[in-house]
Write a structure and sequence with these properties.
TetR/AcrR family transcriptional regulator, transcription regulation, mainly alpha, Arc Repressor Mutant, subunit A, HTH_TetR, DNA-binding, 10 helices, transcription cis-regulatory region binding, Tetracycline Repressor, domain 2, 0% strand
Length: 193
């Protein structure tokens, strides 16, 4: 009797020209930043003509904003007890699995001299973090406190990934979570009137 089992192979199709451009652009923007990446270099890495990149995406800035959207990246879990939220936010931000998110945020911050990039950065921060946090916070000035928490986390990420601050790098991740978590917790807890 013959063997009727079939072996299925799953071959992935090579990326289309647009997909290849998006992949190349994402890697180059993350590694070299907005200013250090040219349309010509992206096109070369993707194996397409630079004119096609502009035709497909409009401009380098539009391509940058498209590939660094962050809307499909994981967001911090804001559920659970508020009295431990500060440390949980820092642990989430510094988790090894969040390296891509940190790199994308860093690329956005570095390119924030562009008004549309600044606008997108504000929109992403508001939608993915601030609005959700406002709903959780008790007490007065919840929106202001949420923006300040987002700013503090952004500052930590700048020290962690961009400035590569040696004092921060020398500390253990757990120590940073404890110390920085306490700083965030001071904004999370409702102010004593």
């Amino acid at each position: 009797m013959g063997d009727d089992r079939r072996v299925e192979t799953t071959e992935t199709a090579p990326p289309t020209g647009r997909e290849a451009v998006e992949r190349a652009a994402l890697g180059m923007f993350e590694e070299q930043g907005y200013a250090g990446t040219s349309v010509r270099a992206i096109a070369g890495a993707a194996g397409v003509d630079p004119a096609l990149v502009i035709r497909w995406f409009g401009s380098k800035e539009d391509l940058f904003l498209r590939v660094l959207s962050l809307t499909e990246k994981p967001v911090p879990d804001l559920t659970g007890p508020l009295d431990t939220l500060g440390e949980r936010l820092v642990a989430f931000a510094l988790a090894p699995g969040q390296r891509d998110v940190r790199r994308d945020l860093t690329a956005l911050v570095r390119a924030s001299d562009s008004s549309s990039v600044r606008s997108r950065l504000r929109q992403i921060t508001r939608t993915l973090f601030v609005e959700r946090l406002v709903e959780r916070l008790d007490g007065p000035n919840a929106e202001l406190r949420s923006h300040l928490i987002a700013s503090q986390l952004g500052g930590l990420l700048q020290s962690w990934d961009v400035a590569e601050d040696q004092n921060v790098a020398a500390a253990s991740r757990d120590r940073i979570i404890t110390l920085y978590g306490a700083a965030l917790q001071a904004l999370i807890d409702p102010p004593v009137e």
